[in-house]
Design a protein that fits this description.
Distance between the termini: 45 Å
Strand order of the largest sheet: 5-4-1-6-7-9-13
Strand content: 15-25%
Radius of gyration: 19 Å
Number of helices: 12
Number of strands: 16
Shape: globular
């Protein structure tokens, strides 16, 4: 089995490839090769049991998608994107990467011929939804995004459904919650503070909270994100039907509840490293995001996530900090 991971140098892409290296198979099929494409070089996981090829390129460039699928990978996992804050700040870049790059990929697969029909897992976002919201966003709630990023993802969701309906590929779109706690350095996502106020204090560093304690949001851990990808890659898509895009399960809580969970896991000294510095730009973006979901379709199809926020913090400490943190 050959797997192509677009955005393979990013956090979720890296963890997904590490999972593949650990198991050496996916859905009962032995993995022969993984190609990791990104704008920077992806690093091969330790003790890699398959051929690993890192490709540095821009998916939005003409002809790039055709080259990436020339070897006919059976599974394509599309993680490549400009994140929310950057897509809002740079309109042209957001549409070029998030929409044009995705459509180039879809078109390259459509025109490949020879019966080529890969499984294609596309990572979307809960940003496809816009206010006013229900208390819980059900599966029938309409997509009316209030950001450029959400609009780009919503357009790609429609394309995914149509190209799958026409039989060009076997697509599954998964709307990620905000992935928390993200390891590494802060990125340009407007949602980054949800991780920053946990990650930095656990490392003994002060963190800035730019919004109110009462902001509520939908979360899942990086471990769950990898699980979403694995399940989407291996599930029987006959059960999805024509509605190919699914809101992933997660856990809804306020920033205050996040902080209280951090207090229970790590103590008052760690919580004291959170500094409140309001940012009206971030606050305005977050105000247009959904806060809670009722993802019955995804749950019925076998997708799972954490059931409390303390579990999310403990996963970060276990997976990223070796079980220890700065008290």
């Amino acid at each position: 089995m050959h797997i192509l991971v677009l955005g393979g140098a990013g956090m979720v892409g890296r963890k997904f490839i590490e999972r593949l290296a650990h198991t050496g198979e996916l859905g009962g099929k032995s993995i022969d090769k993984v190609t990791a494409q990104d704008v920077v070089a992806a690093t091969a996981p330790a003790a890699c049991p398959f051929i690993f090829d890192a490709v540095v390129s821009d998916l939005a460039n003409e002809g790039e998608a055709e080259g990436l699928i020339a070897s006919r990978p059976e599974l394509i996992v599309h993680l490549a994107a400009v994140v929310s804050g950057e897509a809002e700040a740079d309109f042209d870049k957001g549409y070029r990467i998030n929409l044009d790059g995705t459509r180039h990929l879809f078109e390259a697969i459509r025109k490949a011929g020879d019966g080529y029909k890969p499984r294609l897992v596309f990572t979307s976002s809960v940003a496809v939804f816009g206010a006013p919201f229900h208390d819980k966003i059900e599966d029938e709630f309409f997509t009316t995004p209030l950001t450029s990023y959400g609009t780009q993802k919503a357009i790609c969701e429609l394309l995914l459904s149509d190209y799958s309906r026409r039989g060009f590929f076997d697509g599954v779109g998964i709307r990620f919650p905000t992935i928390c706690v993200r390891p590494g350095s802060p990125n340009k996502a407007a949602s980054g503070f949800f991780s920053n106020i946990l990650r930095e204090p656990l490392n003994g560093i002060d963190a800035v909270l730019p919004v109110s304690d009462q902001v509520r949001h939908w979360h899942a851990s990086p471990r769950s994100a990898v699980g979403f990808l694995v399940h989407a890659a291996t599930m029987d898509t006959a059960a999805i039907g024509p509605r190919r895009n699914l809101t992933m399960p997660g856990y809804s809580c306020t920033v205050a509840e996040q902080i209280e969970a951090l207090r229970k896991v790590a103590g008052d000294n760690v919580v004291a490293r959170i500094k409140r510095v309001p940012d009206p730009v971030i606050d305005g973006i977050v105000a247009g995001w959904p806060r809670n979901f009722d993802p019955q379709r995804a749950t019925a199809l076998g997708f799972t996530a954490e059931s409390n926020f303390e579990e999310i913090i403990r996963i970060h400490i276990e997976d990223e900090l070796g079980g220890n943190f700065v008290k």
